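Following up on my earlier message about PXG. Here are the inputs again, as you asked, copied directly from the submission form:
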Amino acid sequence: MVTKMPSRTHNQRSTADWQALDAAHHLHPFSDMKQLNAAGSRVIVRAEGIHIIDSDGNRVIDGMSGLWNVNVGHARHEIIDAISAQLSTLDYYNTFFKTTHPAVIELGAELATVTPPGITRAFFTGSGSESNDTIIRMVRHFWAVQGKPEKSIFISRKNAYHGSTIGGASLGGMAWMHKQGGLPIPGIIHVDQPYWWAEGGDMSPDEFGLWAANQVALAIDRAGPENVAAFIGEPIQGAGGVIIPPATYWPAVQKICRDRDVLIVSDEVICGFGRTGHWFGCQHFGVQPDLMAVAKGITSGYFPLGGVLVGARVADVITEQGGEFAHGYTYSGHPGACAAALANLAILKRENVVEHVRIDAGPYLQAGWHRFNDHPLVGEARMVGLIGAIELTPDKHARVPFPGDGKAGTICRDIAFGQGLVMRAVRDTMILAPPLVVTHAQIDEIIEKVARILDLTRAELIRQGLL
Ligand code: PXG
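Thanks, got it. Here's what our run produced:
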């Protein structure tokens, strides 16, 4: 039995006290600490269902599912109890030296029931970044074992996000991240992304999808297919601004890679576990990857866990010919994480959450979302499953952002929070990715809020002379 923490525990300090302590001792990820400390962090003290509650008692819809991960919603006691029960039985043991444990065994088998055909084995990590680092090492090992150590280059995309470790950030295509710390590491080539709204020029979306796929072919051919290990991509780029590729893109990329014997890695850290209305985002686009990186939604965020789900081609070579794979993390297959994932998968299956996204909540939210295409501030409103974006623009027909490097997005995000909805701003692109268990009534409320937020943002942009 898990007892709820009395709210008193969180109210011992005032918001100002929390903020002062936070500023004094806590370095936040991806934050300008000087700016943040001057403004003060928002203190989130509680969460339930699709809502978060801050230290001033504001109840806000968690339109980002935490950080794209709380797929089954907050405060699901089934998961909390499963973690508790597991930790009471086996709090920790490693999987390095000829040992294993029931939770990690059950999870590997359970994952094999939801993965695309042929992907039946899992290597566990603690995060998405660690999963992608694992993939770099595993894929290079795979080729080296077969006498092709030179087949080591990864093709990725500009504006991709694959994590923040040195490997993950190098695979990623965020130029502003590469500027710090001498990244990327050698052996990674970044090609143009399939971002039609911003970069498609005069091409139709389908033409542009083929053009962008061809950039992958050109990069492989320039490097020499004998030197290229794998292509990695998010089915839909999340942190880059929910970039939904044209339908022509992924099938063309798949053919290009197969023709050149280049492995395909689908980074499913955001798209996996139902976000697109399929178990994995690659299935939405009809692509069969060789490996998948997972994290986030695998536990709905209740416990840190990542994994590399490995198809037969790679897994067989690693297993049969690879000898010792000199790689692993202390928390590879942590019992508590595996218990959280098992309980989370049980909920996803029992409540038909993936189907709910594909045929019910997804289409319902999309219908409301797509109506924002008529709003004067909106250049494009796009969504697949329950992952969507709105491009804010000063000119509906020119497909351009506002001048000022994301200022309009920041204004809109702050207005959204004030209206009781968390949306994330990437430049001037507003993002929504609510928990997958969202109901029709909650979707109605979200759409009503977004309409008001867009109107208020437009008024504020006019007031500031940006429109
Ligand atoms: N791949 C993808 C596709 C991701 O979205 C990672 C890998 C790395 O996962 P970890 O667990 O190491 O964080 C991610 C993470 C944002 C934001 O601002 C997105 C992520 C992480 C932090 C911030 O949208 N995605």
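One observation from looking it over: Residues 440-463 form the longest helix (24 residues). Hope that helps, and feel free to reply on this thread.
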